[in-house]
Write a structure and sequence with these properties.
The protein is of the alpha+beta class and 405 residues long. It contains 13 helices and 7 strands.
Length: 405
Amino acid sequence: MSEPGSGVSDAFRPVVPPPDQDQLPRPGGELAAPGVPDSTGSLWKALAVLRFVLLAQALVVNLLRWQEFDHPLTGWLILTVISAWTLIATWLYDAPRRRRWPVLTADLAIAIGALLTTPYVLSDEMLARHDFTVPTYWITAAVLAWAIHAGWAGGVAAGLAVVPADLATRAVFNATTVGNLFLLLLASAVVGYTSQLIREAAAERARATELAARTAERERLARVVHDGVLQVLTYVQRRGTEIGGDAAALAAAAAEQEERLRALIRGQPGTLEGRSDGQVDLGRGLAGLGAAGISVAAPAEPVFLAAGAAGELLAAVGAALDNVRQHAPAARIYLLLEDDGGGVVISVRDDGPGIPDGRLGEAEADGRMGVSRSIRGRLHELGGTATLTSAPGKGTEWELRVPRS
């Protein structure tokens, strides 16, 4: 090509899923955005009921044995604290925006603190016969809260924090001790794993709903475009071919744009569908830019890149293609995608006449910013580089590199 243009190929920007990853519950984690309905809401409601049931059990057990306490006043003080915390925790966990680590940490700390008072409150005889601790099974609620919020790993971690505290309260160890602790860890793992599955299912359902909506919109757009733009492009193609001469080149350009528009509407190769982690296959998007006179080479395996970065990178490639079409329409173009581990590289090479020395500077001085804004500007925003190599009569090559981090 002989001179940089100022056109921007945003028309060929790939369709990528909207940034809904920050609006969906993350598997095994807290909600990503306040105000978004939590898919684990039913688990929190069940935990609230369980917490009151376990509190009732603790109150009944201690009511039946308080006369054996060494320090009954302290025992009832502890029971009053966990009763009050049950009310407070139920209110805090009721709203997704309040389910945060400070609350979970306080919940677990109160449970462990109540547990550690057992040797002081209970008599030696009660401890010797391996009697219930002061909070009894009430401490399970805090562990399960961690499991619901942070998945099985968080639940097991909370359970492991309770284990040494429970052992420290025992004067003797027996099968009951081991069995209770094992059941606590098992319950935390099962509930945590269930919460992860629920979040993942909700995220998949949301993506399926979004995909159905995009498909319906694409079909509607296809009908509108078919009745307007596509018919005009078809007419220009037919008439340009009939007239011949310079009009034939116009007809070829119209045919190419018609095919690209049809592919874009159909969501075929140029459309990038994202994975659950927000990564898209860059090779598929690059394949969508292939057309007559454009050869595309990409690795056999998918080359994944963040959806936003992939969209900007392919838009920069489109801008480079526009330059070639505008200034060297007869040139053949070669697109090459490479993955070097630390980033991805796309080479855009043509066999046109090349750019004369100083032409880029003249174009920028004249206010034609196609190269600096559409290509280099995009790569700079992505933290990447855009290297241009050209010489008169030897074609032009862009090397566009985007790092992964």
